[in-house]
Fold this sequence. Notes:
mainly alpha; 12 helices; globular; transmembrane helix; transmembrane; Son of sevenless; membrane
Amino acid sequence: MEIxxxxxxxxxxxxxxxxxxxxxxxxxQKQGLELKLSDHGPSHYSxxxxxxxxxxxxxxxxxxxxxxxxxxxxxxxxxxxxxVSAVVLSNVLVDESIVKSLSIRLMLVAxxxxxxxxxxxxxxxxHFAEMVISSATSFPFxxxxxxxxxAAVVYSVDCTYSRKKFDASKxxxxxxxxxxxxxxxYMWACVVIVGCITMLCVxxxxxxxxxxxxxxxxxxxxxxxxxxxxxxxxxFANAIIICNIAIVISVLEDVSGTQAMLRSSILIxxxxxxxxxIFLGSTIGLAFVEGLFEHRVKTLSYGDGSSxxxxxxxxxxxxxxxxLIDSMMSAVFYFSCRSFSTETSxxxxxxxxxxxxxxxxxxxxx
Length: 366
């Protein structure tokens, strides 16, 4: 008896992956991806439908799914994520003169608002300028390869939960039919992120200017700016979580754009702390690899620089793997929030996978 993903939580779905009386996990490939749930019926899962997973359980579920379809996810890394990671880490498209000019302008604005030009402020302006220019130059890769990789990861996770093989031809049909709405959701996510950063800059400049006019010392202005940054980081993290889940929703459900953002904000209610932990872990992992690449590849080299020949590609693969895990955890977090939420009705949020499975049976793929 088959049970749809809408009637069972991810934690319950993972249980049939084990043999009865044995702790050894059985890969889906060895069972032909045709595992059947035990004859408990939907009522067996309805008792646990409001159970949710914490961040550690989501990570374990992600690793389990990665093991079940390791070759597929490795293909996604090699074909879609690694090229973007190489461009982002190397900053090959970034013009250093533009970064320097923008950082000088930011330091002038900071000085005009009453902030002293200390090393912390200078480094912050330099890092912010590099981030802005790098994001702008890499945006074509983000909206094509990286977004396509996110859709492929979400589709693969959905296939795992629905006991279906990853069908490349069906995935291509889904992308052709629904790419516009997925891209629309991603663009709205970018608007939200840019809006949050702009709001921070405007509020920070205004707040520091007011403190300067009132006669407070530059040290107090620096401390106040740090506190504003800490508060903003929480708001920014929540915005990133909503945007990530909205992209997952745009792949799996028939909503997009602002509707996907709204549904995402409703869906993660009560589970925001889990999303914050996932975001924190991913951010630390990405920042760690970026720091290693900056220090080991861009700054240091041994002898004739031969160390860069193997450290660079290795760090690119590590960075791509962290990006993959982050995308997978967002997809698993979506299913966890969906099982936790009681707002989903019988006819709401049907998976595109199920819709396309019916349509491709009646219409041959061109």
